[in-house]
Amino acid sequence: EPEVTQTPSHQVTQMGQEVILRCVPISNHLYFYWYRQILGQKVEFLVSFYNNEISEKSEIFDDQFSVERPDGSNFTLKIRSTKLEDSAMYFCASSAPGQAGIGYTFGSGTRLTVV
Amino acid sequence: AQSVAQPEDQVNVAEGNPLTVKCTYSVSGNPYLFWYVQYPNRGLQFLLKYITGDNLVKGSYGFEAEFNKSQTSFHLKKPSALVSDSALYFCAVRDDTGGFKTIFGAGTRLFVKA
Lengths: 115, 114
Fold this sequence. Notes:
The complex is a heterodimer of chains A (about 120) and B (about 110).
Chain A: E1 5-7, E2 10-13, E3 19-24, E4 31-37, E5 43-50, E6 53-57, E7 65-68, E8 75-79, E9 88-95, E10 105-106, E11 110-114
Parallel strand pairs in A: 2-11
Antiparallel strand pairs in A: 1-3, 3-8, 4-5, 4-9, 5-6, 7-8, 9-10, 9-11
Chain B: E1 3-5, E2 10-14, E3 19-21, E4 24-26, E5 31-38, E6 44-50, E7 56-58, E8 64-68, E9 73-78, E10 87-95, E11 103-104, E12 108-113
Parallel strand pairs in B: 2-12
Antiparallel strand pairs in B: 1-4, 3-9, 5-6, 5-10, 7-8, 8-9, 10-11, 10-12
């Protein structure tokens, strides 16, 4: 069964550094998302991406965050100047054509630890 | 604004007994409703969804959920719990008025005792 792949599985970074979280969505999917989950808490929507642009973002997704689909395969989340409170599990998801917002496949997540 | 409530932090049930994990929601338009399960150190796995049609939705691993519009609820059920069902369960909702933002509940930890 097709999977959404996220790398790395765990990233440790120093406060103030920039990190890039990488995702390879399912190949025929057109809609891409990032969610985050702060340790054991609720899963929070960050951003959705379609047709090479952000289609929707939450209030969490401020200027510190950016997303990119640099090569038609990878979908990345960049976090600039990381803060301790950015420590969380970050999930990438994608949806097939016609399934935007109603059919997600999630990756297994990247655990980001800011120290 | 969309919101989801999972009133129970934890549900305890004995193996073989029926289980229910509760979820209520609030949306502006018609709801799209989802249940996901998360095992320790794993991602979110899709269980089932309600988009339209029959109010009783059947999903993976023997789970089902009933959409109740008047009570704005979407409780997750299983007739006979297994120890392996022990996990964190998330209810999620999106409305049909446009946009992709799906709101997740805080999660309910299910513990099935042998």
